[in-house]
């Protein structure tokens, strides 16, 4: 087993499953890794420390727009639904005990001036939601002016964050702007390519 820079074992990617905006997946296989790319979006990684199962969600907008024509009122892109869905899935696959949950949050970057308060609102929302539900955040990498790739191993609870360059950040910003601007529920194309 190779060691990382801090003396910890190197991050073994194993079998990678990509999480896109609106997704919420849970698993417990030892070699499973969830991966997502975040700009203004936020992902929570929640793990049951007793049952060794966990999951990841990915949402862009903390709250619906209030527009009656908004097409994704129950979409997982909204923080409350995304968080409740993930917590409930982990509890049902795990021990069922809230005290066993370990929660990490990622994302909420300011990657484009047109998305000025989206990331900050998402960070504020997820912290407030977890606090109101009686959960503590055990780890986080939020804010900043960059996009990031997050990889999470639900079995061990290890997370790896890579800050992305401006070219990748611009691509993420374009995708988020199209969702914020049009309120469409179009998912990004499935992509099996992982670059590091």
Automatic annotation (TrEMBL):
Pfam families named in the record: CheD
Catalytic activity: L-glutaminyl-[protein] + H2O = L-glutamyl-[protein] + NH4(+)
Keyword hit for Hydrolase: yes
Enzyme class: hydrolase
InterPro entries in UniProt: CheD-like_sf (IPR038592), Chemorcpt_Glu_NH3ase_CheD (IPR005659), Cytotoxic_necrot_fac-like_cat (IPR011324)
Any GO BP: chemotaxis
One GO molecular-function entry: protein-glutamine glutaminase activity
Keyword presence, Hydrolase: yes
The enzyme's E.C. designation: 3.5.1.44
Keywords: Chemotaxis, Hydrolase
Family of the protein in this entry: Belongs to the CheD family.
Functional note: Probably deamidates glutamine residues to glutamate on methyl-accepting chemotaxis receptors (MCPs), playing an important role in chemotaxis.
Protein name, entry field: Probable chemoreceptor glutamine deamidase CheD
Gene, per the UniProt record: cheD
